[in-house]
């Protein structure tokens, strides 16, 4: 298939492009490089030994998107492009709603105009809000505590409403849990701008001595050791989940959790990182971070049953691969 990958130079998008190319698909990337670099393209080509087509465009730009659909035979869209910093979304709600929701509408409209019937959307476990774990696809969505989460819930709704009146349209709403790790080559991985918000990039930067020590946000949650529990998933497993979703897509709306089903606490992750890489990660316990929930992990049987996909890489592999990328790539 010929797949348009929006946000394809970003963290999850670049790993997914490689997985698509390795599975024999062709890739057209559309990215405005607002949170990634064009060198990503060269790395995707180096790793996969395949060519890709790249358009530096904003996917909220209807004309630019139309130009791509008009001039290329597209079989499906994977829509990664989006702003993703939860805290920033509270500061800049309009920017988040515009970028994340309008991009979904523009792409869906182009699919309608050009008869493209496969769509895969990057959603997030954040749409479950503070439901009871494990999160199951059939649960009612709860309000999230930030505009970012709302843009994901809104995009899911837009795609669902569109699919409901266009029976030949297939849409997969993929709810990611906590993607971490990097390609085993150490060439691509997560390189956030500024001080990382997320745990794993913060841990790797502390290990490297770039940041002083990890601040563990709260040790009084109702969890095994009081620290927050998350479902960390290797980004390569996540990438393979997208290929499985695309290749097994059937008409209608399908929601899948992409996680491992296993919860890991902050302190467990720190310990796993230290043991996997034989390096110390100094930390201190500080107050809870506003908006955090105690536990978030997936019920994963639907993806396994319907897509034949499940995550294979363990927490040690995630820690090793994240560290290899950090050592190779960050100043
Ligand atoms: P990322 O920032 O590395 O990648 C997103 C890419 O989209 C970037 O390359 C950016 O330049 C591009 N982009 C943003 N807005 C654009 C626009 N209007 N037009 C064109 N390009 C645009 O982020 P990521 O971690 O790879 O996340 C990919 C998707 O997965 C996002 O939609 C994100 O919300 C979602 N997601 C991520 C996580 C996570 O923890 N990383 C969790 C759940 C969901
Ligand atoms: N944490 C720390 N110290 C840090 C960073 C994080 O203790 O410096 C803790 C958090 O309190 C939480 C856990 O580590 O308990 C994971 O936090 P992250 O910021 O890495 O991830 P979140 O679960 O908060 O959110 C991530 C993405 C969201 C996405 C969500 C989906 O940032 O975009 O996963 O589950 F929606």
TrEMBL record:
GO CC terms: cytosol
Cofactors required: NAD(+)
E.C. numbers: 5.1.3.2
Domain NAD-dependent epimerase/dehydratase: 3-259
InterPro entries (alphabetical): Epimerase_deHydtase, NAD(P)-bd_dom_sf, UDP_G4E
Taxonomy, superkingdom: Bacteria
Catalytic reaction(s) noted: UDP-alpha-D-glucose = UDP-alpha-D-galactose
GO molecular function term, any single one: UDP-glucose 4-epimerase activity
Keyword entries, A-Z: Carbohydrate metabolism, Galactose metabolism, Isomerase, NAD
Pfam families xref list: Epimerase
Example GO biological process: galactose metabolic process
Pathway entry: Carbohydrate metabolism; galactose metabolism
Residue runs in coiled coils: none
Subunit structure comment from the entry: Homodimer.
Record family assignment: Belongs to the NAD(P)-dependent epimerase/dehydratase family.
NCBIfam families for the chain: galE, PRK10675.1
Name of the protein described by the UniProt record: UDP-glucose 4-epimerase
Protein source organism: Bhargavaea cecembensis
């Amino acid at each position: 298939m010929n797949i348009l990958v929006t946000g394809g130079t970003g963290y999850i998008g670049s790993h997914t492009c490689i997985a698509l190319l390795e599975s024999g698909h062709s890739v057209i990337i559309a990215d405005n490089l607002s949170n990634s670099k064009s060198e990503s393209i060269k790395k995707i080509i180096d790793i996969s030994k395949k060519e890709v087509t790249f358009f530096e465009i904003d996917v909220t730009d209807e004309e630019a998107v139309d130009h791509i659909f008009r001039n290329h035979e597209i079989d499906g869209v994977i829509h990664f492009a989006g702003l993703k910093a939860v805290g920033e979304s509270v500061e800049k709600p309009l920017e988040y709603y515009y970028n994340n929701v309008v991009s979904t509408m523009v792409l869906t409209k182009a699919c309608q105009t050009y008869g493209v019937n496969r769509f895969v959307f990057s959603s997030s476990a954040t749409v479950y809000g503070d439901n009871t774990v494990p999160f199951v696809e059939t649960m009612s969505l709860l309000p999230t505590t930030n505009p970012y989460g709302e843009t994901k819930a809104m995009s899911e709704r837009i795609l669902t409403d569109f699919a409901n009146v266009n029976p030949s349209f297939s849409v997969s709403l993929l709810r990611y849990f906590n993607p971490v790790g990097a390609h085993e080559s150490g060439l691509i991985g997560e390189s956030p701008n500024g001080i990382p918000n997320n745990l794993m990039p913060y841990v790797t930067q502390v290990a490297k001595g770039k940041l002083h020590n990890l601040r563990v946000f709260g040790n009084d949650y109702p969890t095994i050791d009081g620290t927050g529990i998350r479902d960390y998933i290797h980004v390569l497993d996540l990438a393979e989940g997208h290929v499985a979703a695309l290749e097994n897509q059937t008409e209608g709306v399908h929601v899948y959790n992409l996680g491992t089903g296993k919860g890991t606490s902050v302190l467990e992750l720190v310990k796993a990182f230290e043991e996997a890489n034989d390096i110390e990660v100094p930390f201190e316990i500080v107050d809870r971070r506003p908006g955090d929930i105690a536990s978030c992990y997936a019920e994963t049987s639907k993806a396994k049953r319907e897509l034949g996909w499940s995550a294979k890489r363990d927490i040690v592999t995630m820690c090793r691969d994240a560290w290899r990328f950090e050592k190779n790539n960050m100043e």
